[in-house]
Amino acid sequence: MKLQFLQENNIKIERLEIREINLPLVHYFETSFGKTEKRRILLTKIFCNGAVGYGECTTGEKPFFSHETIDTAWIIIKDVLSPIVIGKEWTAPSEVGQWFKQIRGHQMARAAVENACWDMTARIDNMALHELLGGTRNDIPCGVSIGIQYTPEQLLEKIRIEVEAGYRRIKIKIKPGWDYDILKLVRQTFPDITLSVDANSAYTLADINLLKSLDEFNLLMIEQPLSHDDIVDHSHLQKQINTDICLDESITSLDKTRKAIEMKSGRIINLKLGRVGGFSEAIKIHNYCDEHNIPVWCGGMLEAGIGRSHNIAMATLPGFILPGDVSASKRYFEDDIIDPPVTVNKDGFIEISQMPGTGYEPREEYIEIITVRKETLPA
Ligand code: OSB
Ligand code: MG
Question: Which of 99, 140, 193, 211 would be 315's cystine partner, CB 3.0–4.6 Å?
Fold first, then answer.
């Protein structure tokens, strides 16, 4: 069935649909760069010969995590990516990413299109997406990322809920003024949990003493303490602290990953599918880290169900040995856009569906209801 389709019809995008949906978060999410209460999410859907594929763009609403926003991604997909891909045939979805190589930046926009091509290929091949990617895990370990709260008590309560739910690693967001004292309190209350912190670039090397002081909390890692595009200062910092640095924002490509590892800018990589431009680049980075004994884990961007299901598929690759930030749908949204929603078992694992595709089907009617704009390309 697979070969027949591929031999007789190379796959191509006949039509590309982009839409924006709005989804309120069940609880606001605050990081050092700002607070999000409602998600504005760009979804892609591609069509070929009656087959479809879905993608989700992982941009934020504002350019605070990276330069991209949902609005820049909309323009890039419409004016730059769609003219490149529409009508052009491919035999493997990894080729699509190659066509975008000439584009500087805009990885999340590229990923939203490339990942839809992988999604469609899995459906056409009647194969599980994780299998198409080369994944080997039957379940994936999950952690949670807990934002900055109004009060320390609120944070402790959130941690308690997630620990009791079975999550295998707790990550809390830190920023100047919400760091040492908060961690001291968290550690006093939960001496044994696997704990990490994420600064989202809130510090500089001038904060070296504060960053050194965090060594006393036995953290699994400190994520992206310094500038969003830096690997030089992180390398200086890693030499001076015991806690493992994990790079998030800085890892935008395989090339950047290689340089960061060569410079010893960190010892762990948070791999985000959108931030690196899609599945092809993510697989390359995974393989590179695996060969260099650098543990990777799957980061999150407050994704709705389509992006979440793609993250889950990616996290089945063998090098994803640490718990990711991919957690249950209900932690984010009252009503996720996929059926079934993502659930996490009491031991803190997501069990991998062996169904063709992702095992999570987009709820078309519901998606239509929460759509605020839509365009079909070519126009
Ligand atoms: O730095 O990992 C991050 C959310 C939005 C932008 C950046 C980050 C995050 C998270 C949340 O930490 C991860 C999630 O639960 O999806
Ligand atoms: Mg991060």
Answer: 140
- Map residue 175 onto helix, strand or coil: strand
Residues making up the chain, counted from first to last: 379
Domains of the chain: 11-126+362-378 (3.30.390.10), 132-361 (3.20.20.120)
Residue 174's pLDDT band (boundaries 50, 70, 90)?
Answer: very high
User: Does the CB atom of residue 108 touch ligand 1 within 6 A?
Assistant: no
Token duo for residue 115:
């990942």
CA distance 340 to 338: 6
Nearest ligand, CA 247:
2
Tokens 């010892």 correspond to what residue? 267
pTM of the complete model beyond 0.90: yes
Question: With a 6 A CB cut-off, is 302 part of the ligand 1 pocket?
Answer: yes
- Tell me the CA–centroid distance for residue 358 and ligand 1, in Å: 22
Which residue's C-alpha comes closest to atom 6 of ligand 1?
A: 301
Ligand nearest 221 Cα, by number?
2
pLDDT band at 3 (very low <50, low <70, confident <90, very high): very low
Ligand 2 centroid distance, CA of 301 (Å): 9
Which residue's alpha carbon is nearest to atom 12 within ligand 1?
Answer: 145
What are the Cα distances from residue 10, in Å, to 5, 99, 250? 7, 16, 36
What's the gap in Å between 278 CA and the centre of ligand 1? Answer: 17
Give the residue from 61, 64, 88, 82 showing the smallest Cα distance to 72: 61
pLDDT tens readout for residues 245-304: 999 999 999 999 999 999 999 999 999 999 999 999 999 999 999 999 999 999 999 999
Q: Which residues are catalytically annotated? A: 173, 272
Closest residue by Cα to atom 1, ligand 1, is 200
